[in-house]
Design goal:
Layout: E1 3-7, H1 13-27, H2 39-43, E2 50-56, E3 59-68, H3 78-88, E4 95-103, H4 112-126, E5 130-135, H5 141-147, E6 151-156, E7 168-172
Parallel strand pairs: 4-5
Antiparallel strand pairs: 1-2, 2-3, 3-4, 5-7, 6-7
């Protein structure tokens, strides 16, 4: 097994789109089914600060992005920004979001997700941005984040959330 974490390139998008769709039934991410856009367009989110692909033996199997909290191109929900800012005790300009984060089901438990998260957290640290994320509590992701040090700072109902879905959890990772 040869795992590489590298900047995402456009030629990764078809394989990443397939991985996103494949893992959705188990993870519940993204929480929109069907997606209102092509999976490749969901992965290639506008306004990202940086994006990475996890490549296992030459095949893209996971993705993560860092996103600015206040950039209008990213169009984040203002309540999430407020919760994250309060949770970190920082202005929203000093925050960075970990998002578009997933791995193919067949590579779970092999350290792929942890390696992607490390790349995102290193990027945010290099940019002097405090880490934030949001999660819909329908799979095991919220528990995994809690076990790895992320703190819940509130819940909200973003405009994209379906009526029958639970509130989104806003989380922050305290900086050491």
């Amino acid at each position: 097994m040869s795992l590489t974490i590298r900047p995402r390139v456009d030629t990764d998008l078809p394989a990443l789109g397939r991985a996103l769709v494949e893992q959705q039934s188990q993870s519940g991410y993204p929480h929109r089914d069907p997606l209102p856009m092509a999976p490749e367009d969901f992965v290639a989110r506008a306004g990202a600060l940086a994006t990475w692909t996890a490549e296992l033996d030459g095949v893209p199997v996971g993705h993560v992005a860092t996103l600015p909290v206040l950039d209008p191109a990213v169009s984040r929900e203002p309540e999430l920004a407020r919760l994250w800012a309060a949770g970190h005790g920082l202005p929203a300009e000093r925050l960075g979001e970990v998002g578009v984060y997933f791995t193919a089901t067949h590579v779970r438990g092999q350290g792929v997700g942890a390696a992607l998260m490390r790349a995102a957290l290193d990027d945010l640290e290099n940019r002097d941005l405090a880490p934030c994320l949001d999660v819909v509590p329908t799979g095991g992701a919220a528990g995994l984040y809690r076990r790895t040090g992320w703190l819940e700072v509130g819940t909200t109902r973003p405009s994209w959330l379906h009526d029958d879905s639970p509130d989104v959890i806003a989380m922050v990772l305290p900086r050491s």
